Drug/metabolite transporter (DMT)-like permease (Rhizobium herbae), 301 residues
Amino acid sequence: MNLQAYVILCITTLIWGGNSVAGKMAVGHVSPMMLTSLRWVIACTVLLVFAAPQVRRDLPVIRRNWLLLLGYGTVGFTAFNAFLYSALQFTSAINAVIEQAGIPMVIFVLNYVLFRTAFSMAQIAGFTLTLFGVALTASHGDLTTLLSLQLNQGDALMMAAVLVYAGYTVALRWKPEIHWKSLIAISAFGALVSSIPLLGWEIATNRMIWPDTQGWVIVAYAGFLPSLVSQILYVRGVELIGPNRAGLFINTIPIFGTLLSIVLIGEALQTFHIVALALVLGGIAVAERGRPRLPEDVKAR
């Protein structure tokens, strides 16, 4: 039992769960695209010092793969957070964190469709449970709204966020062999550049809200903790117990996000949330236990 790794990874997913809560608290204090842009301004400024030596060493590889690396930032960082922060204008933080639990299911489907990745019947059963949990959340406990295509705008935007991040994760199989600091730094720069047109659109349509005091606190949180600290901690956790075991901790994000939503912003925990959480976490547990074992799984134990 590696207590240090467990503590590090729980702090990591607590920070990630808090990102959705921060986005909800930002409503009326800083607009979604302004928050997205300022977040990456902070992250890039810190990375300019923190990762610069490694980026210089990896420069030949970066030059050959610059479009792909910037694309990671555009899709996985900017697009995901733009959809997330926009969704939170219309739906609850609890809904947002539970719906994010659908990401592993979409990754599973994409990997099978695109690469015919091996799967088991337990995975199908597990992800079916997860799908019901996410659908129950998106429909606010009334699945008939899905049949009539009456989906809350915020929940629809969260579905887009889930698709975007799953696509980004699958695309990481093509990442070049560079240091993780360089990968984060160039992706963050791509996120900053791609967020500028979105901010321009927000300004042009009179939707932009310059951060007030609370807005700046949220910007600082998003810029330092989810963008930087959690990434570093996650890498350390992977070093200690391996990627497969570390990846399981991502499943705690809905739990931490739900608890933070209740404690910090007073959102109500409804019966359908509890049922959805049980379905989502139970489904992921079934899928993980029943997935085909690969050679690297044995090495990580």
Q: What stands out?
A: The mean pLDDT is 85. Residues 194 and 230 are 22 Å apart (CA to CA).
